[in-house]
Amino acid sequence: MCASYGLDPRFTDADLLAAADDAVLDGLRAWATENAGETLRPTGKHRRNLNPLVVQPDAAPLLEPAWWGFLVDGEPAKFPSINTRSERLRERPGAARNRAIVPATSWYEMQKPSRQWNEFVVDDGALFGMAAVTQQGRTADGNWFTCFSIVMRPAPAHLVELHDRMPLLVPASFSRDWLTAPAGREIVDEAIHVSEQMATRVSAAPRK
To answer: Does the pLDDT at position 20 exceed 70?
Structure first.
């Protein structure tokens, strides 16, 4: 399960979008600089942090603040909603009707039984995108938000001893397809397939 991740403003590579969008990247740098060193965590009833999310409602990708986890009847969902298994999306592809990309430079997982926290990165700190599914949600005070859940897949062999799952990473070359292709099992299957090339680039070390 991915329950926290990082976005370092010092990122140098933009392995996020097929055609790097200056407005999106500038927005990410501004957000990350303003929140330097902050660990991005799920949004809660009392902790109204909103995390940057890449969506594409029209011709070009946009960056918007979004609620991590789903809202149901005005409250954070009682069921686990910050992550969605890729296997579940294959079985119920309708859940992937609305999709987004979560920008990050790392994510964090606890290794059991040692309870050691490890930091996972791509190419030693490059900017990358995690696949997400979205839906609209309303809080009890009547405010509407885009809510997102990060898609998780089985970890590859070189990471599985640290954690059995990892985010489904979206290569830049596949970003437009993930954001805009019609919903269905085909787009989920293709995303799982192309994520393999990204997974080989992931390394991990104890979190400092």
So the answer is: no
